[in-house]
Q: What sequence folds into this?
């Protein structure tokens, strides 16, 4: 079996400048902080980050933003990280953040489509709003839908609760969020997990993400907490 | 009761036994406190919970269980967790009976604006666009005016969250129902007159022949 266990630094080493990186989690619950920390340490620039939100300063992708590593952010909500608004509105072109706001359900489904071999999907969400600008509207049985296209990435940073050495991963509680879809939609998938067990150590009935999607496994992810 | 409690208490009366309900952050979250014990609703949280329970007791939190406002919550017996694609499949698929959320503006065609003030506040739409398009009933719960300025308008001035989706507006002044015929005031809080409501509302509205005191 391929040895997928790596240190955080080894796992993020291939993430170069300009990479497109999906990051799991919702308000940083379900975000692999050890992988984010390693990426901050590595200092890759001009990243395109695809994540539900911008975390908060000092948490989740908020750390990458504070460190000036994000050029483009795809997210559904950025209101709890005031740095986003400041960076969107700055006059300094080097600091300017290109923030693409996407309805949360559309974001999740675009990633799912990307990982599931679909050329896109039709959603009623956003019809008649600025989200529809530039998109094809298709009428089916009297109702308008927007054609939304799939999203893929070079890398996905996933947070697991328990992962076996093949990469089979389970997610506790509300840490699941975007992780399972992102694990299918990126070329290289890194799981930061709380506990690594031998193959056979996770019940196949409970596995959500198959090890076939996982390229690297990093242990030592801490339980998520609000205070920090 | 303060203004928010009046609104939350009235929203709770709209929910029926067995309803699947998504409550927005802020005032809508308070609705859960006013559900009578004989009514059992199933709360959906878009970050991945069906059967969400009350806020977690201090010291007894499960650190892996939070609501969409990133607060520690509990899950009720019979509940489950799921990923975000499944969550929004539930929402868009019409499996949520009612969604309760706040608004910056609502207009007489049922259009809703609640996610952006261009140049001033750009928090993003989060799950709101999906929720109001997918839920069977959309209840806007908000104060009737913002610093004295009407929020119920002839036409929204801010970018839409969705068009023609609002079914009901519940404020401290009363209850308005929206359909193809327009806006109808159906309940009035006893502290206010119809004229007070007209003065605080830019949209034109009818007064129901069966206008009732607000059911709080």
A:
């Amino acid at each position: 079996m391929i040895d997928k266990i790596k240190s955080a630094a080894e796992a993020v080493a291939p993430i170069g400048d300009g990479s497109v990186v999906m990051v799991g989690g919702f308000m940083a619950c379900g975000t692999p902080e050890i992988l984010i920390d390693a990426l901050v340490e590595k200092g890759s620039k001009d990243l395109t980050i695809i994540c539900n939100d911008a975390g908060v300063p000092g948490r989740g992708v908020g750390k990458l933003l504070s460190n000036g590593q994000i050029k483009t952010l795809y997210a559904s909500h950025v209101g709890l990280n005031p740095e986003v608004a400041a960076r969107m509105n700055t006059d300094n072109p080097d600091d300017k953040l290109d923030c693409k706001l996407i309805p949360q359900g559309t974001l999740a489904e675009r990633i799912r489509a990307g990982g599931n071999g679909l050329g896109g999907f039709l959603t009623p969400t956003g019809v008649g709003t600025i989200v529809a600008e530039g998109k094809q509207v298709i009428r089916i049985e009297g109702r308008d839908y927007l054609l939304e296209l799939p999203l893929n990435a070079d890398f996905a940073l996933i947070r697991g609760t328990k992962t076996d050495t093949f990469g089979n991963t389970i997610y506790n509680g509300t840490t699941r969020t975007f992780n399972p879809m992102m694990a299918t939609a990126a070329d290289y998938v890194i799981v930061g997990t709380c506990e690594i067990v031998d193959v056979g150590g996770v019940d196949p009935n409970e596995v959500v993400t198959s090890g076939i999607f996982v390229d690297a496994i990093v242990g030592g992810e801490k339980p998520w907490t609000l205070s920090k | 009761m303060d203004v928010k409690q009046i609104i939350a208490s009235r929203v709770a009366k709209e929910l029926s036994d067995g309803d699947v309900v998504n409550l927005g952050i802020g005032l809508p979250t308070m609705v859960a406190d006013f559900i009578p014990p004989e009514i059992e609703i199933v709360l959906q949280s878009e970050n991945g919970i069906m059967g969400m329970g009350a806020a977690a007791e201090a010291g007894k939190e499960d650190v892996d269980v939070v609501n969409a406002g990133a607060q520690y919550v509990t899950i009720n017996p019979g509940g489950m967790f799921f990923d975000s694609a499944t969550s929004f499949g539930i929402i868009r698929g019409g499996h949520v009976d009612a969604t309760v959320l706040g608004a910056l503006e609502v207009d007489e065609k049922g259009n809703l604006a609640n996610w952006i003030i261009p140049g001033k506040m750009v928090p993003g739409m989060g799950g709101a666009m999906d929720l109001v398009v997918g839920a069977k009933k959309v209840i806007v719960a908000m104060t009737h005016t913002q610093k004295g300025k009407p929020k119920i308008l002839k036409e929204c001035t801010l970018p839409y969250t969705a068009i023609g989706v609002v079914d009901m507006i519940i404020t401290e002044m009363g209850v308005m129902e929206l359909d193809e015929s327009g806006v109808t005031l159906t309940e009035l809080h006893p502290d206010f007159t119809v004229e007070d409501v007209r003065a605080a509302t830019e949209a034109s509205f009818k007064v129901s022949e069966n206008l009732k005191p607000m059911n709080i």
About this structure: Chain B has one domain: 3-213. The CA atoms of residues 3 and 172 of chain B lie 6 Å apart.
